[in-house]
Amino acid sequence: MDEEGKRREAIALLRRGIAIEQICTKLGRTRQWLGKWRRRFEAEGEASLRGRSRAPRHRPRATPGRIVRAVLTARDRLARRRGRQRFAGSGADAVAWELELEGVRPMPARRTIERILERAGRTARPRAAAHERSGGPYPYPRARAPGDLQQTDLVGPRHLRSRRGPVRFFDFHTVDVGGGGAATEQRPDKSAESFCGYLTGCAWPKLGLPRIWQVDNESALAGFPAAGRIFTQPVRLALLLGIEVRFIPMGEPGRNADVESFNALWQARVLRRFETPGLARLARVSGRFERWFMDERPHPKLSVAAHGTRFPGALLRSLDGERRTIPRGFSLDAYRDAAGELRLPLARGRISWVRRVAEDGELRILGHRLRLRRAANEYVIATLATGRGELTVQLDGRVIGSYRHAIDEKVVRPLVGRGR
Description:
- The protein is 34% helix and 19% strand.
- A hairpin with a 2-residue loop joins strand 1 and strand 2.
- By secondary structure, the chain is α/β, with parallel strands linked by helices.
- The chain starts with a helix and ends in an 8-residue tail after the last strand.
- The protein has a 9-stranded mixed β-sheet, with helices on both faces. Strands 6-13 form a two-stranded parallel ribbon.
- The protein has 4 domains: 48 residues; 55 residues; 170 residues, Nucleotidyltransferase, domain 5; 68 residues, no CATH class.
């Protein structure tokens, strides 16, 4: 019997003349409880037995009605937009920017906007991302400014319906974590050649050369470390241009959270929102999306106080002349052999792998079987300095092991920077 049922039973027993002590014993309640509900019933009747809300009658911190109406009106207006304006979506961030443009004050917090949309049934919250595996603190690289860190990933394979049948493609994405910029391009495959073409023809001309280029363990990038084949053409390209390459742990894509988030946004706002019956049409729509992302959408990580602008495109343009760029006249064609195959030299530089040490303290990498008991179950950074042929392992920023790793080919100077 629920609480309301007990109240009704108590009143019914009282009206039948049952003794108070017997009622309290039967229902497991006190005389004070019975007296309270007897008085309420006598004063207010049957309705009083349903109880009363304990919520405060006066809510001084409740969101004003005009703010609620402004949020819902902005959301509905965003949902009706067409063409290029459809990229903005109608979530809390987009609504917040609409309110800011309208000069709404006081400006509600993002979580307040989310609650208003949830209560009105005008939002679809995405499925929560899976948590990464447990372990020690993760050694995230710092990304305080544009060029500190870039993450590259791809979406695909995907297919378009064209008059000639299905068209298979991959979409390459790079995000500058410190500056918020992004670069996208569609290619027919995910080969090492395609990665190099995308980087030199799209990503790095637009965003500049990063200090650290962080990627997953796609074979076109990572090669086959267990067999010692790690110097893929994209890795050689990065080293030649003075960029450190960093591989995230196997099976943990969330470590590239910024580009993964961009992947999801691109698919939602481009692939699922627009009809693109061919790669040419897709490229045009994706280009418009990229311009919107760079110059029309205020980036949540940027502020006028800290960056002088909230738009990644404007921030990048303000740094013209300061960003590291691909050397003038550089061309992949200069590094092709007689058969047209890309053969980039190995330059001095650093390649890093973030890995989690086994519970027994063993780490296997590049053919080495390392015993690192003090790092058991912890994340470490194993870094190969190609110039010295040395593999070092760091835990919490401190070197805990150094090992010789022979490189059986000539190592050249990088075209940008000094390398190591």
